[in-house]
Design brief:
- This protein is mostly helical and 217 residues long.
- Helices cover 61% and strands 8% of the residues.
- Helix 4 packs across helix 5 (90-111), helix 4 (67-88) packs parallel to helix 6 (123-136) and helix 5 runs antiparallel to helix 8 (185-202).
- It starts with a strand and ends with a helix.
């Protein structure tokens, strides 16, 4: 299922969400400008678990391996980020996003510590945003494209199924060679889990009241 948009409007302008999308897209354009040398960018700034460093832990979440990779992450960030940013405020949301990305990369590193492949992408941070949305808006509807038509799906179902699939895929990936390719599913699992827990620390209490949110849930 491909999400198209959520039915809850943002009360405030999601400036951090927009900014993160812009930064990620600009970084991807930079990657494209490197041509055949882009692999050196990935190896220098992606997080390699077997050669762990704090610097690449930060830079890795702004790199993407292709159009589908960056497009998918930015689509999910755009759909879920604005309303989560509403509940946290701009600065809190930015810190939350970066911490979720960090937790996600650490989760993948702990599960595959011998891997020589760079971890890249905003998937973990975006997974954290999805985890926060799962907690904050369980009764909302997500308009998604499935079965060749647009349908509304409860956020609880959509995000719950997504997490279960990532977890099961992550468990299955443990049987693979640590240096083999593939999707870093534990990034998704770790990010989502960090979001589910972290939202209780980062959401602003005054923005949980019905009168602030006009009764939308």
């Amino acid at each position: 299922m491909i999400p198209l948009y959520d039915v809850i409007p943002s009360r405030t302008t999601p400036i951090v969400t927009v900014g993160l999308v812009v930064v990620n897209v600009l970084m991807f354009l930079f990657e494209l400008s490197q041509g055949d040398s882009v692999d050196r960018v990935f190896m220098s700034y992606g997080l390699i678990p077997a050669e762990f460093s704090l610097a690449t832990l930060a830079t890795s979440m702004f790199l993407h391996g292709g159009f589908v990779h960056v497009g998918g992450n930015m689509l999910f960030l755009w759909i879920f980020g604005g309303t989560v940013e509403d509940r946290m405020g701009h600065l809190r949301f930015l810190v939350f996003y970066l911490l979720c990305g960090t937790a996600a990369a650490l989760a993948q590193t702990l599960m595959r510590p011998d891997s020589l492949l760079p971890i890249m992408g905003a998937s973990g941070a975006v997974g954290g945003v999805m985890g926060a949305y799962f907690v904050l808006y369980p009764n909302s509807q997500i308009v998604t494209f499935a079965l060749f038509k647009c349908i509304e799906v409860p956020a609880l179902l959509f995000l719950g199924l997504w997490f279960v699939l990532q977890f099961l895929s992550g468990v299955g990936s443990l049987a693979e060679n640590a240096s083999a390719g593939g999707i870093p599913f534990w990034v998704h699992v770790g990010g989502f889990g960090a979001g589910v827990v972290g939202v209780f620390l980062f959401r602003r209490p005054e923005r949980q009241r019905v009168e602030w949110w006009d009764g939308l849930r």
